[in-house]
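Methods: example folding runs. The two proteins below were folded one after another, and each record is reproduced exactly as written to the output file, sequence line first and structure-token line second.
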Amino acid sequence: MKRQGKNFIFFFLLLSGLALLLIWGINHPQNYSFLSFSPSLNEKRSSANSPSFNLLFLGIAGNGSRGVLLTDTIFVSHIDLEKEKISLISIPRDLWVKGNIYPSGIKINGLFDLENKGKQFSSSCSFNLIKKEVENILGIKIDYVTVFDLEGVEKLVDSIGGINIYLPKDVTDPYLVNPHHPSEIFHLKAGWNYLDGAMVAKFVRTRYAPSGDFYRIQHQHQIIAALRDKVGQLTNMWQFPTWFKLWKSLSGHYLTNLNFNLAWRILQLVKTVPADQIQYLTLSNRKPDNLLISTMRLFGGKKVDVLLPRAGENNYSLIHNYIQEKIND
């Protein structure tokens, strides 16, 4: 699980960095060379000039899907430049939250949708509501945000020629269909499986198991690990124009406020940070964290399964202490 967590962090940071590289490339077409940019980790840091900062990553289904703006993937990467340490903090989508705009309560994965109600996913979307809520939950400031949609992941997987994953057990979900054979339910056999973009999009959404959404999170980690390995191999062979073409094809599938120089320093950090300086944390109702409890709440006229802080509804004191202990260790 720790190895998957490291891969998950690396791929997200690589994803964010390359997305910002595309933005820079569009505005500076005369400088298509990696050699033009090699800032040191010791250079002046972010605008806040802080030795550490936090990046919030949100994964959504995207336009044309049901629940277009629901953020079913939510995690924060805490980057400490001085200690060369990375902490990944995953937040389950079913965490129940309350605020001035949503006093009766809502699952945290609905906040991005609530703020941008009626919109399609585009650069006009804003993420202030969920950003502030995550800050409230974790007790840390969120400096940067990246939102990525599922179609973008499909395009990325197909662009790199697909991926291979190993499954210890068969995966079957009667609520999903095989994208290549719509009359069949989704099924993958135990062992090695080759997945193209369409199959990846299905696999990361399956949660037909007693553990529900935590089962889906496990699958997402497997995909990210495989993507990280494949992209890592290609970065040693592909030239900048190839990467530029790939990321240009992803235009419209991500939204971020990261700047290029900072993203590039993050990539440098990930390459050099020791394995024991990367930690994977999860807010869950399971050991070893055990920070949440499972219960039910009324939403939309019916009862739904939700997660609440173990310390009490809207009481994040235990979570704050836990996060500070881990990131300052």
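Second run, written to the same file directly after the first:
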Amino acid sequence: MKLFLIAGEPSGDRLGAALMSGLKALQPDVRFSGIGGPLMQAEGLVSLFPMEELSVMGIAEVLPKYLHLKRRIRETAAAALAEGPAALVTIDSPDFCLRVAKLVKAERPGLCTIHYVAPSVWAWRPKRAAKMARVIDHVLALLPFEPSYMTAAGMTCDFVGHPVVAEPLASLDEVSAFKAKGTAPLLLTLPGSRRGEVTRLAPVFGQVIGRLKVAHPGLRVALPTVRGVAGLVRELTADWPVLPEIIEDIADKRAAFAAADVALAASGTVSLELAANACPMVVAYDMHPLTLWLMRRAALIDTVTLVNLVSDTRVVPEFIGPECRADRIAPALMALLADPTAQETAMALTMERLGKGGEAPGVRAARSVLAALAGRQPFQTQPPPNTLPPSGA
């Protein structure tokens, strides 16, 4: 059995790798082609081109690369059709993936199309679900309240759990070794995995560190990053008041997440990784003013932080757009350093509702894919208690 998979970002690469591992365990003859990053490649995928070419977010950010991305969409669709897979599995990155699915579906209407990560229609642009249903047959949802939105639009959908609940955590020895490098507070800085994010957030994060250093002269700063932006990160943090320890090794990243006293993070799934490690956080994010204006006009919720949404609390402070300023962010981090237990309950509840303690999400996703391919009603699992949309939706 052949499957064509597409992932466009590091988070999608992690999802794809876990799905591939689950599929290989359940269907040993499965073979893969498509686009993915290092984790998917380690599971046996030969990527059509570097995944990093697709890691672009925001209308204003996409425009300069529009023609190149259109060419890649056509190339990817042609490759998928040439492979003759049993299914096309697209993973997040909807602006790219769903355009590929549209072209493929036009040529092969009967091909099973599966999208991994439901669009956040509960947050903004609810009509996206109906539009997606024209080219997608089945959806794998990460959040427990999403299936009802997908089925209402005409697709089948399973809540398969979020992969963060199954990702390995650092051992006590690894954490102790990381902490042994210093006794001062350890700040984890996470300015994103896209070049545009890092470029916008690095200067602000540096200013925040300058303010924290006044109160904590021995402040340590760690910055886990990914292959595609590591060089840019080193360049943009060279003048920070505290030179960060830039981390690319996966084991060292796990240790940093577990050892940190507090984190300053870009908006995104990283808030769930922090919650899995019980690391209190502040979220800050900025983007092109046009992108921000359009998103705020369409927003249906009052928070962008997944921990806040899944736990149905608002305990994680966030500073978005014009609020993404050092003089606003630094006091919030100082407050968390003074009371690091403030977010404990919400983080634990988030992990419970995302499926912690159950079957690995990658295996659950694989079962759902195989059931959809077999033409059966996709397998259903009992979702965690919170199956309602977030407050404000």
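Comment on the second run: Residues 282 and 317 are 5 Å apart (CA to CA).
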